Amino acid sequence: MRQTTATVLRPPDPPDLPTSDDASAPVPGLRPWVLRLFFLSGLSGILFQVLWTRIFTYLLGGTTQSVSAVITAFMLGLGVGSYLFGRLVDGPARRPLLLYGVLELGVALSGLAAFYAFQHTGALYEALYTRAPQATVKWLVFLIAFVFISIPATLIGGTLPAIVRHAVTRAEGVKSALGRLYAINSLGSSAGAILMLGLVWAIGYEASYHVALLLNSVTGIAALVMARREARGESTDARYPHPVPLPEGEGRSGTEGMGGPPAQGASARVLLPAFALSGFCALAYEVIWFRTLDFLLLGKLATFACVLSVYLLGISLGSLVLSRWSPPRLGELQLFVLFELLLGLLGLITLPVLSLVSGLGQRPLTIATAFLLLFGMTLLLGGLFPLAGKLYAGPLRLLGRTVGNLYSANTLGSVLGSCLTGFVLIPWVGTSHALLLTAGLNLVIAASVAGLALRPLPRRHLAVGVGLAAVGLVGWFSGDWLTRFYERAGLRPGFHIIAQSEGSLQPVLVAEDAHGERVLMGGPFQSGETVPARRQTQRLQAHLPMLVHSAPRRVLEIGYGVGELARTLQLYEPELLHIAELDEHMIPMAEQYFEALNEKASRRANVRVDVMDGRHFLKMSPDTYDVIMSDSMILASEGSLRLYTQEHFREARRHLNPGGVVLAWLPLNAGTTKALVILKTFQEIFPQSLLWLPLGLNTQEAFLIGFRDEARIDWEAWREKFERVARADLEGFGWGDPAVFFASFRAGPERLAEIASRVPLINRDMNPVLDFLPQDPSREIAATVERLVAYEPGFIFEHLRAPPGGQESLESLRASVQRVHEADQHFLKGVAALDAFGARPPAEVLENAESLTAGFREALEVYPAHPAAAVWTGQVLGLAARVEPPLEPERTRALLEEALRHNPTDLAATEALARLALQRGAQDEANKYLARLRALSPYSRLALEIP
Asked: 73-126 pLDDT, tens per residue?
């Protein structure tokens, strides 16, 4: 979960700043160079926060606890700094600009120390991991983050009261100055969020961190130079002569020229806790927004930066506009109440509006609507700070203290909002009810401030507010809007959610379509499904390393998914199957709703489960393994991309026993450029590697097998395990032939090294280039597959070892592998013909079936057991079940039976034949197809309805 300090109060804004809240007169002290300094301060501050989060999670694991530890420590430091330095800057010997410069330099120095301390944190955490319970270690992570981050964060927190105390010289300018300073700082933070993308892409996290340090150093030195010039009485800008400070004790009271109540009485007593609760709501909304927008934007670094930038830009503009504008008939306190009311109403309509708009099926429109709602909320959040500043400000001589009080109260509320929403509210009551409670809290704040501080109470306005809140609540409870949004924004058409579980990390969803096909979702990302194509990938992925390794006894699987991979690994009866799963809700949901696929594999006696980030687990664990592999995770989220860095592969190699292997999923359909970067990154660590690209139900999913030692396969051990375990498990998917298995090896160490030498990029923790690479055109991906399949497969026999008596069987295998290779070329011609034909109605495809399947039939003539050629021929013929208007029943039946002979995994053909048999009353024939349907799709509605 990604959270930021976007809404805590670190301020900003453009030039031309008035001295009164009447926006027309310039404000002494708010010189352009002051604004530029505070802009840079905001920019570097957001860079620090984001980079601390990224670097910390790379070093200590991408768990929600470690992310929250960084955010909480950062925000607590801001609050403590604003409180302490707010008092210091009001002291008798105050020189706020000097203090500001010292603070900025202190941020640079302490940030540098924190960075190098991070480099050694891994060893400390490893020591804690081996000596303390896992649950305790999570909290020790927080303490580590607090120590390393709180010092620079405290100094950052002190910059706001210091710059405000320097800039504001008249009490009547408080609202304008606070609003504009807040605006310019937030604007700098917004720019920093976007700049971060370019910096990380160009120079990586480590160099970007040093850029942030440089910005702080420049800001601090510039402030010290200006402070020295002012101490000499020199003006830094002829248009803004240095103001003569008011003698201590002679500042104007907060009541003069402010048009509102003083910093005493009911309004002040109510305002500070109200503003703290407002900070709670602000960060709670941010947590919920990031979680919700994941389903639209898929949670990559660019998404994070865009959302954060919009959030900060809204706050900046809201603060700027509200510092210049006051409605003619509303005072500041009434405006504060109105903003809280509007925030509550926007919170109530967010999910209904997003759900309704997403139902239109236009994702860009849904995204635009989401950002419009987000921008509206942040405008209101930005406007609260100048309002609260003016309402709460006391005597000018205590301005630093009052600003520090406001800032620290809001920050404390923000800390609680971030932590409690992510770790308590969402896991306990779910995202939807967490949003409802947050919106309700805004309404309570509005009602409380109005009831306790507004005199006389405006009854007409109160009635309007109550009416709007009632309408919002009625709309909220009129439907399950969050579930509808998940279905429309995150699922394929036709799927509906049948179960969901909310945790601090993500929602885990189970969805089903009308035929009984099920999908398991971890947030917006698919973790597994019941369709044969995905099940084939899971089984092949599990069998491959277990067959290649001569005697796999200890196995590590990272990620559980639906659990079919773990079930398949268990067929080899390893002495230990160790599962590292990041989400504690994933395995229970999988074993409740996908038991037919996983057979509750995690509950067997030889299984250990660690709920933890897989790459972090490898870094911490002292255990070693014969086989290490990851589930086939989609290459979209940052969590999955972390499993493809050079550092992760290096850790995996370190945990291999002699003769051990690591398997990495290589989805070419994610993009050729990405696949080549992964190949290069993997090959750098595992120079002895083999690339395996099977042609079957999926033709664009490859696997890399990295050997710790020599790339060697024991032929006798392989054959014994294949006959004992794999053949029976794979025959139903067309993979019962050893020749097809070995013909799928497309490249060995020499060829992979030659391919890698042409790739200029490596994916590293501190330079995650995979985050930024574009999706390649489908034609380029197909061309890459063709080039790989064109390579002669004979090289694999250089890596097969057999005793002298086994040479004859190897020669027979070699001849079969060559025939499979020839059939592969015919198969690719068939694929090209289908691609050239394009997307046409099923009736047109069937009319041209003979020519469209010619390449596949030629492949079957060369090698009758070729699984891909058979499958694709069957898929073309299987369109008979979907022709509109329907064909004659007998012709449909004949085509579907032929389709099923070629492709026994065709669900649509199997279901259609079962229905045709039931219509004719042929119960025995129907039972045959229903049994096949249950084997392919255990939750098929038709198969479950008929005993």
From this structure: 777 888 788 888 877 877 655 688 888 899 999 999 988 888 887 777 666 666
Give the Cα separation of 310 and 300 in Å (integer): 16
Report yes or no: 506 and 582 within 8 Å, Cβ to Cβ: no
Report which residue type is found at 649. F
**479 carries a ligand binding annotation:** no
Q: Which amino acid is at 456?
A: P
Q: Are 501 and 589 in contact (CB under 8 A)?
A: yes
What are residue 704's DSSP bridge partners? 664, 691
3-state secondary structure at position 787 = helix
User: For residue 892, what is the enclosing H or E element?
Assistant: helix 889-902
Q: Is 581 annotated as a binding residue?
A: yes
Closest CA to 143 of 115, 121, 116, 158: 121
Instruction: Name the residue type at position 42.
Output: G
* pLDDT (0 to 100) of residue 301: 63
**In 436-559, at which residue ranges do the beta strands (DSSP E only) sit?**
496-502, 507-512, 518-522, 525-529, 554-558
CA separation for the pair 216, 211 (Å, rounded): 9
Query: Could you tell me if residue 516 is left (phi over 0), alpha (psi between -120 and 50 degrees) or otherwise beta?
Result: left
Amino acid (1-letter code) at residue 79: G
Asked about 771 being catalytic, the answer comes back as no
Which one of 21, 294, 583, 631 is the catalytic residue?
631
Helices 64-88 and 32-60, axial angle in degrees (round to 10): 150
First to last CA, the chain: 45
String of b and e for 106-135 (b: at least 16 CB within 10 Å)?
bbbbbbbebbeebeebbeebeebbeeeeee
Q: Give the 3-state secondary structure of residue 887.
A: coil
Among 186, 176, 160, 181, residue whose Cα is nearest residue 314: 186
Residue 69, token pair as written in the block? 């530890």
Cα-to-chain-centroid distance, residue 189: 21
Closest CA to 107 of 189, 1, 213: 213
Pairwise CA distance, residues 34 & 40, whole Å: 10
Average pLDDT, the chain: 82
pLDDT for residue 317: 81
Q: Does residue 897 have a known ligand-binding role?
A: no
d(CA 376, CA 381): 9
Backbone region of residue 609 per phi and psi (left: phi > 0; alpha: psi in -120 to 50; beta: other values): beta
Nearest to 769 by CA among 646, 875, 860: 646
Per the CB < 8 A criterion, the answer to whether 300 and 638 are in contact is: yes
Helix 889-902 vs helix 907-920: angle between axes, to the nearest 10 degrees?
140
CA–CA dist 627, 643 (Å, integer): 16
Most confident of 200-214, 601-615, 627-641: 601-615
| Both tokens assigned to 361 | 């099926």
Structure tokens given for 357: 């708009």
* Identity of the residue numbered 195: L
Is 737 annotated in a binding site? The answer is no
Crossing angle (nearest 10°) for helices 32-60 and 96-118: 20
**CA 340 to CA 592: how far, in whole Å?**
43
- pLDDT, residue 64, reads 57
DSSP for 64-85, please give it.
HHHHHHHHHHHHHHHHHHHHHH
What is the DSSP code (8-state) at residue 242? P
Domains of the chain: 32-231+270-476 (1.20.1250.20), 529-802 (3.40.50.150), 814-945 (1.25.40.10)
Q: Assess whether pLDDT exceeds 70 at residue 13.
A: no
Query: Which residues have C-beta within 8 Å of that of residue 789, sequence separation ≥ 6?
Result: 693, 695, 746, 824, 825, 828
Find, among 142, 639, 186, the residue nearest to 418 by Cα: 142
Using alpha carbons, list the distances in angstroms from residue 753 to 258, 749, 799: 73, 6, 16
Q: Is the peptide bond before 328 cis (omega within 30 degrees of 0)?
A: no
Residue 943: CB partners within 8 Å, gap ≥ 6? 516, 914, 930, 933, 934, 937
Q: Which amino acid is at 795?
A: F
